[in-house]
Amino acid sequence: MKLGQIKSNGSVVAAIFEDTTHARPIPDYSMFDLVERLGVEGGDLKTLASRLATAHVVETTPLIPISPREVWGAGCTYEISSSFRDAEHGTREGFYRAVFEGGRPELFFKGTARIAVGPGQPIGIREDSTFTAPEPELAVLIGAKGQILGYTVSNDVSAWDIEKENPLYLPQSKTFTGCAAIGPYFVTPDELGDVYNLEMTCTIKRGDVTTFEGSTNTSKLGRKIEDLIGYLLRSNQVPSGTVLQTGTGIIVTQESALAAGDIVSITVPQIGTLSNPAAIV
Ligand code: DO4
Ligand code: MG
User: What pTM did the predictor assign?
Assistant: First the structure.
């Protein structure tokens, strides 16, 4: 099942998507309300959503699929992310590789709903950065028991020049207005197929010109997503309705640094395409 949010009768409500432009609204429930109710009642999201959705289908466009309580990122989960960073940063040799290979994953806080955007909304380019780049990542929606409720496409928009200046600047390179895009909807685990065999592609367009094209496969993800969640929840009661981005396997280099007006599109065929224009924030 594909679950997200739409505008219906002036409010943002959860909806079951039949295809990219048609959905069955779930009146009176945001996606977060559904997740909260599930936390109280138990069961699975698909059954709850089916029970509450209207029978009629409306023509619509997807909004951000949840107003996330928190957004977290995982880093150096793909070898290419750690090797690129080690090569670029001139830090102690193997500084990032040690995280890719280490027992404990890198996890960082991106922010709350305030910094998150949905399909078609502007992602941010920091005004004090000359190298802000998209990081295309699979993301998961976490339920009250730490279970995975759904998978979506996401962008961990990052100011790499700031991280490169000094890794201690990571929070500033990772958190700013429009630094996390998610959508277009969540696919429930039963429908996704093998989560460790998903093709992901990313393009950046500047008008008619493609300034970047790249791809990866989640088979290259060096961690189990349940393990990432396990570490995230250690002594840290993240609320249900939290989104975790699982790390990038696509590296965008300086020549393709984002400029205002660029359109970033990230596709996982089993989920959909997340497209966002970039804007200086
Ligand atoms: O280590 C810095 C961040 C890494 C990251 O965000 C990623 O690998 O996706
Ligand atoms: Mg990332």
Answer: 0.98
Q: How many CB atoms lie within 10 A of CB 120?
A: 17
Structure tokens at 48: 């709850």
Nearest ligand 1 atom to the CA of 245 is: 9
Q: Average pLDDT of the chain?
A: 97
Ligand 1, from 135, 138, 168: best to mutate by most atoms within 8 Å of Cβ?
135
Long-range contacts of 11-18 (CB under 8 A, 24+ apart): 12/63, 12/67, 14/49, 15/53, 15/60, 16/49, 16/50, 16/53, 17/62, 17/184, 17/185, 18/57
- Which residue, judged by its Cα, is nearest atom 4 of ligand 1? 75
Fold for domain 71-280? Fumarylacetoacetate hydrolase; domain 2 (3.90.850)
pLDDT band at 91 (very low <50, low <70, confident <90, very high): low
Helix (H) or strand (E) holding 35: helix 31-41
Q: How confident is the model at residue 92 (pLDDT cuts 50, 70, 90)?
A: low
The domain segmentation of the chain, as residue ranges, is 2-59, 71-280
